[in-house]
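#struct-help
A.M.: can someone run this one for me? Single chain, 418 residues.
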Amino acid sequence: MDAEGRGVARKPDGKVVFVEGALPGERAEVRITTGGARFDIARATRLLTQSPGRLTPRCPHFGTCGGCATQHADLATQVAAKQDWLLQNLARIGKVEPERVLPIVMGEEWGYRHRARLSVRRVEKKGGVMVGFRERRSTYVADMRECPVLPPRISALIGPLRDLIERLSVRSRLPQVEVAVGDNAAALVFRHLLPLTEADLAHFRQFADQHGVHVWLQPGGPDSAHAFHPAQSELYYELAEFGVRLYFRPTDFTQVNHVVNRLLVGRALELLDAQPGERIADLFCGLGNFSLPIARRGAQVIGFEGSAELVERARSNAAANGLVAQFEAMDLSAPNLAAYGRFDKALIDPPRQGAIEIVKSLDVRRIVYVSCDPATLARDAGVLVHTRNYRLVAAGIVNMFPHTAHVESITLFEKEKK
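D.P.: on it. Structure tokens below:
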């Protein structure tokens, strides 16, 4: 399977064909939908032999909705494909191979998605307002009635959300609803492009009270989002193993899968092996998801983050948890870590662009690198191993997004002894 969950085949002449709806090991009749000089894209029209890992998709919208790509495969098939994709990228792009492959970090496969951005569009010929993910490879909104990867209480709100928005004066100018679920509450952030009327506000209050959710309003960019009802709205999630509670706004970046995030933090701390007194840099630290557990272990941690707002949130989280941790705003595309002295170890959790400028200059004994893109991870791993004198000790996937082809991973690098 490729990075989009398609089966990969080859014609007799060696040309690659990416086949929608086909799994590894299957034989199928296919129809070429897009021909190209280097590869073709096809769709399976009839299966001749089926993979033992094939399942009937649970969601009735699978195949149309773009939220999931691999519900037709069982979990074992999905994670095996992701592990293979990670190792292929490391080998092909970075020219590196881990000394050992880590056990897969995984949790529940349904109801896991605690963050989501639902699109909204009013389509008269389809009965009015539609709320859901975009259709696959399309700007159209899928006509969804349920979503099994969302928590059940949020999935159950898709219908009521359609009814709510249909009643609003801004129903044609409300493009999205952002969902954020904490351990204590769920928030819905409504992006509206026109001012709301008093009647609209009354509808929002009624919806919040009836369904037990927090309603936030966003008239402009992300910074304009504010709690509406209740007026005081604070979300948090807990990392119980470390006695840490992290507070966040619904528009802040947090991991979508709370259970797997807890397991990921545990794995990262195990690999990092933070010791009391060690100086550790947490790069792209966000709210302090890794920094505060590191501080709980007694290490001296400095978290670096590009967003000054997130830095303030991380400082507040440290104070709320009674932990000593330093947080600094820094442009991590042009880092200046030397200004903060020497570090013993580092944890890196970058966006999809990776951390190329950091790995070019970082000089610590041990690096734990959490990645959401195998290609940029492989590029950075190649730099660390081939030019920075590091060993790739271990690598493995983190199944943060079941039923999608998204590959999250964690790797461990150690400096070669001279």
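A.M.: thanks! The chain has three domains: 7-54, 83-108+257-415, 115-235.
D.P.: also worth noting: The longest strand covers residues 39-49.
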